[in-house]
Amino acid sequence: MKVSHLAALTLAVMPIGALVPAPIAQAQLFVSSPIQAVTPNSETLYLNTNATVEQTLRVGAATTLNGRSIPAGAIVRGRFEPAEGGVRYVATAVEVGSQVYPVNAASELLRDIKDPRETSTGAILTDAGIGAAGGAAVGGILSGRVSVGSILGGAAAGAIIGNTTAQRVVVVEPNQTLTLKTQ
């Protein structure tokens, strides 16, 4: 097979031309810092673990979100959502002035506990009082007289049952800080 000199020259030049670096496309990578969000409520929140609750928070410390500066005081839109063992706060947007930026961030799990309103000393004493009255009534009906044993037994039963049946809630204190990490 005959190859002309011009064809051979073209083949020889092409690989050398391929060695010249091509322009590199540059992508900008935005790294977001966690958002330190503060609950603005003045009273303690008691959240059921089976309900979603809409709640706005405030940014507690300036941060960066997708390359944008988010100042302290900006509004975080989102909700507390049920999760295994408690609830999580899920942020859907951050509002800076009149600008709203979508966001997908969530807090760590906020664990549930027995409702402290139902397990406080006052609540236990109330349950014990109800139990004592019940014990006295049952003792009076069954034996015809009220004894100290029936009163004490009823009081103990009332306190135990009241504490055992207390529902589980997540307690969010006023000005509590939640760390929201983008997902």
Can you tell me about this structure?
With 183 residues, this protein is of the alpha+beta class. Helix content is 32%, strand content 34%. It has 4 helices and 13 strands. The strands form 3 sheets. A 6-stranded antiparallel barrel has the order 1-4-7-8-9-13. It has a 3-stranded antiparallel sheet with strand order 2-12-11. β5 and β6 (68-70) form a beta hairpin. α3 (121-143) crosses α4. It is elongated. The protein starts with a helix and ends with a strand. The relative contact order is 0.18. Mean pLDDT is 74; it is low at 25-31.
Keywords:
183 residues, alpha+beta, 6-stranded antiparallel β-barrel, 3-stranded antiparallel beta sheet, 32% helix, 34% strand
End-to-end C-alpha gap: 63 Å
Strand order of the largest sheet: 1-4-7-8-9-13
- Helix tally equals 4
Structural class by secondary-structure content: alpha+beta
Helical content (DSSP H or I, runs of 4+)? 25-40%
Structural Rg:
33 Å
How many β-strand runs? 13
Query: What is the general shape?
Result: elongated
Uncertain parts: 25-31
Mean pLDDT metric: 74
> How do the helices and strands follow one another from N- to C-terminus?
HEEEEEEEEEEEHHHEE
The fraction of residues assigned to DSSP E strands is: 25-35%
Major β-sheet profile:
6 strands, antiparallel, barrel
